[in-house]
Amino acid sequence: MESTSQHTSPERGAPAGASGLATAFDAWRRAGHRALIPYITAGHPSPAETGDLLRRLSDAGADIIEVGVPFSDPLADGPTIQRSSQRALEQGTTLPWVLDTIADFRAERDTRVVVFGYLNPVMAFGVDRFIRACASAAADGVLLTDLPLGADDEIERAFDAAGLPLIPLIAPTTLPDRARQIARRARAFLYYVSRTGVTGAGDTLRSSLATELDALRAETDRPIAVGFGISRPEHAAFVAEHADGVVVGSALINAIDLGGLAGAERFLRELRSVVP
Description:
eight-stranded parallel sheet
């Protein structure tokens, strides 16, 4: 990330109304711990297996689990997650069922959950109803990939009023002033997209990623998690050196497709072994 000619002081201190996720990241940071954040598509490989998958990932060392709400037009996702979403929809997975499944999981586990999805299903469900359901399910945050900061102030105010943080995305193409604006308003953590384009496992990480993360770190003390393209232990270890959290999605979906729930658990344990 390029620096601007008029540098402003980094945003320091916890954001106003900091969330439980922000508090957790503060504790992990003090302990030298990096959050391992797997993504799953709810209802994949089947609705009957989703609860067991959540428990297995918790046992394997997940700190936060992103639970994706399957959607018929997931434009930010690559072919792997698109296939998992279609498979889940074909088996009858719905938004209310996803939230009920999260509630069942959170009733027995402390592993935090972020609901990951798109705005259209939330609007169809009803924003206020969705927020209440997320709170009832003990979800810790929401990431809506097609709701950039400032796009709908009314929706953002509704989430803020409920104390349910929206997780903002920052991309390599985000201008520094915009990144600082996003960071100032983040109540949980920043999700840094490691590359442009859609989600998907990759062979390599971009050579400029470390520089970009270090530049963002100089502008804010908000926790930073990195996702998109992380598919190998060496990727996870590298990201953990520069960020507070490591997100893995498509590679985990691939592990499920190849080895079932046991394969997913093995894969996440392998990542946990290199992420402190």
